[in-house]
Queue: 4 jobs
Job 1
Amino acid sequence: MDDAPQPRRRAAPGYRQISATLTQEIRSGRWSVDEPMPTEMQLVERFRVGRNTIREALRELEGLGYIERRRGARSTLRSTNPEGAFVNSVRSVEELVEYANSTNATLLVSEIVRIEQELAERLDHPSGTEWMRVGILRRREEGDEPFCYSEIYLDPKYRDVVPLIGQETQLFPLIEKHHRIVLRRVVQDIEAAAADPNIASRLQIPVGSAILRVRTKFFSTDGKLVETGLSHFPCGRYRVRIALDRRSVEAS
């Protein structure tokens, strides 16, 4: 008997990966506006996934304004660049933070900081505590205007994951992998704000411009706060789309 280890089969791509691949191909000019897109079955064979996965990917492209779908007919390309804003489509906790992996990210700063009163209130942290601050600037593609500047405040005992930032630009998956803890709870608050000089310079907008400030707190299984992210989005460059399915309730 041959006991040699067998190569692992590559996991099938999810609909978000397929959608991202097709979006890149559309924006690169692979198809012309009003040209028919590949059929569902052609995409099934290409990506080696089920038809439902392909339909979800096409539904997302339609929602973003790239394609037009008609029952019983092939999808057609409607636009190669339907909107300047980055759109984050969210239907689960995983997708809430997954957008970070489909963008171009630049690590700007990593340092230990002591949280003063004003920042403590913004983070909902005790003042006087020390955290690892990581600054990341995000663009849809290299060369585009930045659509997000994030300052991530990390428990210093996890600082060893910061040098590992590369293709994986979310810190929590790195923490889960290297410290064997599990993300159990995410709490997110969104508020309108005005860009201070630091945020304005990062996002290349005038000081005082309208922004969305999003605070996302990540908790481990034991309820401990591991990471807090403050993400700043300039007006007109980002939009989040949330779709929630209502669970059926059985009559008692």
Note: The first strand starts at residue 67 and ends at 68.
Job 2
Amino acid sequence: MAKSQATFMKKQLEKNRQKKKEDKEQRKLERQQNGGGSDLESMMAYVNEFGEIVSTPPEKKV
């Protein structure tokens, strides 16, 4: 006798869930290894005298 279609679909759905879980874990590991980029200095933005957003701090005027 042939297996039912419902059993086949259950197995396929489980494979898809497992693959998604593995992909998510892989992306998590890549983020942990690359790290970096989240320090405060890289997130800072400054506004210059013209009201434009720039990444360099303003010069001190004496």
Note: Residues 1-31 form one domain.
Job 3
Amino acid sequence: MSLPLRTRYKPMEAMPASELPVGPEWQYEPKWDGFRCLAFRDHDRVELMSKASKPLTRYFPEVVSSLSRLAAKQFVLDGEIVVESDGILSFDQLLMRIHPAATRIHKLSESSPATFIVFDFLADDKGKSLVQQPLAERRARLERFAKRYFKPGHRIVLSPATRDLSLAQKWFHMGVALDGVVAKRIDLPYQSGTRTGMQKIKKQRTADCVVGGFRYLEKKKEVGSLLLGLYDDQGKLDHVGFTSSIHSKDRPALTRKLKALIKPPGFTGRAPGGPSRWSTKRSTEWEPLEPKLVAEVQFDHFTGGRFRHGTKFLRWRPDKDPKQCTMRQVKRENRSPPGLTLSAKK
């Protein structure tokens, strides 16, 4: 096997779905909240590649070391890189790894080591490609490979998988599958770069947030986005994100409503517009509001004290006291599924 073969192996991706598909042709796995990664080994060379075909090798030296220590000298594995902190998976710790300083990366690799959770097998220990094999065969071979080569102390583990719908539902409803559950067709080959035969089912997460401010549209004096806040344990209102999913027909009336509530400071804790690599001039241009309006929003992830992406506005909650909108709403269980231990020591 030659490492340039990695250009053939773009990760197979999943289509969003609203519920778990049912049938004997489906396998279910936890949906991990980490960095998707393809791992390539060709004797002394190991490379890690992201879903976007970007190199990850330098950021996770402990994963590279563990892959290098496997007795198998050739393989291509598909999986997810995660970081465990205090018994839960931390996306914040993972993001800290994408750093230009090698000394910083090395320090974090020792204090908060990452784990590579493997869930698919693209080339075996003889360098033979398996992508044309159906998932049922690839999974069986991966389990034999893991049993033979994955050892305690290595930071490489096998992801759970099941064809038992009731177990998959238990993972989903208990929250132990992190982001939700991934369903894969066991009768299909690995289809690089496509979303055929693979579905991701996420739990809908909602939160009631105080509207602590708003921004205007770039070229029109109408509301463009609502700035969302949650109260911390000290009773201060922290800015946690935004929502811009406002219907055009609703903007004029909503703008008038918001203008009547303009009053500093808006946020009494962390405010919008702080310095970051994503900041623009418009990041600091916003109108503060009295903390009277409560909006229910849908979100995907909450890490580092804020929604990782923009949220979807669902409805107004006039029945909700703004003081009830606290950070406790967004705390969720991120623990590993039963039977999987990530805390292997180096």
Note: The chain has two domains: 3-202, 205-330.
Job 4
Amino acid sequence: MITRLPVAAESGQVTLLLAPNRALSREQMRRLTWELCVAALLVAGLAAWGGDIFAPMFALVEIPVLALALWAVWRGGDRRERITLDTDNLRIEQVPPAGRAASTFPAAWTRVQVLEPGDGHRHVVLTAHGHAQEVGACLGDDERMQLSQWLKTLLSGRSGWR
């Protein structure tokens, strides 16, 4: 999901916020986790009633692992990228910071490339002065193409030959 924040009129700053699409709210995710755990207990109970005495023990291991896996996936959806373009620089930062410092590229020399490395997906890469960084990895292919078009449009008026 690409959110274009309002332009700061006095500075000409444009901000794009990139985030993965979420299908479930926090409450819906909790409910899904609860329902899956109840279903696992029900199946383990039916299996135990049918003679499989190990099914309840397996369910006691499975349920916390399932809950932790769903929680990790949910937390992974909190990651966002913020691309800020002002008159001189293009800044890319992770929100919340993922241990990697924000990258800054000079807007006049930044180029947008769309690469197809053979994995069936297109990747949007920003390059300037020998440095490159992929942006929008959390987006789908159509959204990446939209992002590349927006970035090309935003950067097109910024030439290094002023």
Note: The domain at 2-22+78-156 is CATH 2.30.29 (PH-domain like).
